[in-house]
């Protein structure tokens, strides 16, 4: 029996999102776009999430990422932090509710929040390395990235990670490649309980209202939406049972703001910063020339990892934030 | 499941006990979130651990593993004491009013008739009084002290909230809160669904765990209704299909029995399966047993099965023991009584208890055949993998054959889900390398054995030489052909019994349903309950119409649900005695004065008068059983027994260890441990990140949960000096493992019978093949004993000791 494997599907040529929709571009200006896309949002309902990690799995699969097989360090969080290959991560917190005395297992899907006012983009000195679309998606354009790590400093949520393999910054793209062809993010597609949903920001806010009403009826008086104004609101939002205390959820910032230092870069100091950065950029170019920009093939990579796995001491340390 | 996954969204209350649906069935769990989000349903979780299900529950109560019966009988007592009983349902649809024989009693943990030598009961008193009319004597007033209801009241009287706390370690206030929430579902307009899995089955009294909840659901009037039911969440995508198709040593397809050695003659076998109704007008559907049995024999042996030779009854093996279950098979290997073993999609070295004994037994085989898409530990049991499989390869003489088979995505066919839906699927890609479909492998075995018998003869070659083999390509029967055979077909022209000149179905045509099957050899059917799945109208399992008129959750044109495309079993019980729905907002079917109409296929005849014919058509009573007569080996009512390895003695019957009728082999008894030496109550379970021992072969899953660990409370960790993320060693008489320690608030010490009980949680996904880090499974430690009725191993409750360690010795 021979079957036709994955028959070709006609490509969807109707691009719904592209460079013409940039509203911001790091260290450079963009023309006013001719159209304004409807703002989108991913809503993560923490109260519906069962921590199954289907989102993490879908993210690895869709983005063709190869994370390390790590170790257990006494918790369910694996890997233990975001890495250049792990754009999203379930973070598990055991919290005893001081009012009820009951244990609550708070599980939060961590990843880029796609801020309306993106600190990473503001901090980025490399022209066009970080862009923002008019629908709110904040995306990294890797060929423009110089690996300086300023985006990490600029991010109030500590999200971007610099790859030691190619010295570029990585984070969740909100599946901009899927959104561009009218699909939702892979994580939302994979979520079995609809804890992750995707749509226009208005729809998501309305959906959140209903969820908050339900949670309040179950005794969560402080249930609410996390759409922090300090960063102009976000295009990834949470429904939290304890919206008065976001930091319970594995340190989700109570009131995130872009660091004043980064804000200051927007003024004259940014050019000073850029001058400094020039050195780093030059170093990056030299590094690239010496080592080549091609990433190793998957087969080579697998073989190397298998060998590495046999030598337990030699665990690669990818994923340390550069800051 | 009595109901279906999609029906769970109709419920008011979900109780997850004996399972962990969010963790082990995350996709099906979506229907719980739907019920919560759209109906305001509540979720209760009762579990030794605060699980992923508990993380989204409205109420969580802890319980010590292996004490569910005490808890549930306590809830039944609470409902009776507080008059939280759906009385109309109980009176109409259960055997509450039936009178039980004089002589039946329960005392000191034992029912009448116990024989400690045989570890078995004489069950003759566990039955009803039969009147002169041949029917059961009843007392509709429920005044007779020997009626089932009064015997039940007496039986559960010991399980007070205080006793529940003492046995289960569930704080009284938490137990009472759960009991109160459950009892609210005794009104006709509120239903509860029970979602359970191996947390109930994997005990030496697993069947009785489930019966306890079934009884509670009957008392609440929750069986047969939308949003109710007993919903077993099956652990493999086709494990429901496995049981349906009779892949047990004592069954043939459709829950028919393999004969025993006491039934050498066909007349004896079929004569004891008359299933005469015990109450007037009842359908007692098993009266059709001969039709299903004969049709099965015709499907197997075709023209060699004739009325003259009792349809080749002599071709069937006759059992000399209750069953040749897996535990018995390994015991026989160990005793040198079994020389060859076929493992088809089965990894017993990790999936069955007491790995030391398994390795020893496999090492005594002459040959072992593995049919699997993966490199299983069983296939490599002889290979030394350092501390993780420390065997002396040179001393093992077993010859191992590995036959790579296809994975589910590489072949076509039906999978039967928990809700009894036969869903056809298609191949997504070609198998790698030399992998072959299981059907090809089995066909080759058959054809080659047949050839050998033809050429060389043998002691009794007839069943193999005469096996029907009508497939277009004998080398590889197609899934389509096999499915058609399971559905059944007319062997000869079927004539209308009232008008023999009329042919109702021509020879060779597919039967439309099992109602067409006959006992005279004119029909063939591989599995009667699947009849209707592949008719003259085509493959019903391949249907993909997801319309759901009036959003009942039935989805009647999606795939095929056995039996007869019925989506909710016992659905006649969704209506009162006049045939009107108990809850009009949850109508399923109703009596319109002439016939039953509605969204589902009724259980009972479509014109059966609601006041005459009961819903429980498979029982000769027509009604359900709160008292189950002699049909279970360990009692007509459930009773609390401790696990064979328990941290405390049985409070209600201190002299009894484990289930008094569970089978224990002598060498295994010696390896049971006591609380003095092994004080900690261990349990085993699955994690969401993995599926059994399969997904550790997949890189992504290995990333998400890379390494073997055990879970313990902060208190036990402090006592033992074990650090979060540090190594510990867990051991008992059967084995020893090293694991990383997950020290967690989600496991709390319990107080049982005045003593603190610490729980050690051991997930089961690691071995010595695959992409994840090498580790062990809990089966290195688990006892070799099973449920008294069906021999499912007691994986969920056993004893261990634990200490801080430096990790496994590295080679």
Plain-language structure description:
The complex is a heterodimer of chains A (323) and B (811). By secondary structure, chain A is α+β, with helices and mostly antiparallel strands. Chain A is built from 9 helices and 11 strands. Chain A has helices at 54-62, 119-123, 150-154, 176-179, 186-190, 201-217, 260-265, 269-291, 298-310; strands spanning 22-25, 40-45, 89-96, 103-110, 130-133, 138-140, 161-162, 169-170, 196-200, 224-226, 236-240. In chain A, the strands form 4 sheets. Chain A has a 4-stranded mixed sheet with strand order 9-2-11-10. The longest helix of chain A has 23 residues, at 269-291. With 811 residues, chain B is an alpha/beta fold. Chain B has 3 domains: 6-235, 3-Layer(aba) Sandwich (Dimethylsulfoxide Reductase, domain 2), CATH 3.40.228.10; 237-292 and 303-417 and 421-465 and 539-562, 3-Layer(aba) Sandwich (Rossmann fold); 666-804, Barwin-like endoglucanases, CATH 2.40.40.20. Chain B has 22 helices and 33 strands. Chain B has a 6-stranded mixed sheet with strand order 27-29-28-33-26-32. In chain B, strand 28 (727-732) and strand 29 form a beta hairpin. In chain B, helix 14 (326-334) crosses helix 16 (355-362). Classes of the chains: A alpha+beta (323), B alpha/beta (811). Chains A and B meet through helix 1, strand 4 and helix 6 of A and helix 2, helix 3, helix 21 and strand 29 of B.
Q: In which order are the strands of the major sheet of chain A placed?
A: 9-2-11-10
First-to-last CA distance of chain A: 56 Å
Q: What is the spatial order of strands in the main beta sheet of chain B? A: 27-29-28-33-26-32
Write the H/E string of chain A, N to C: EEHEEHEEHEEHHEHEEHHH
Poorly predicted parts of chain A: 1-7, 278-297, 311-323
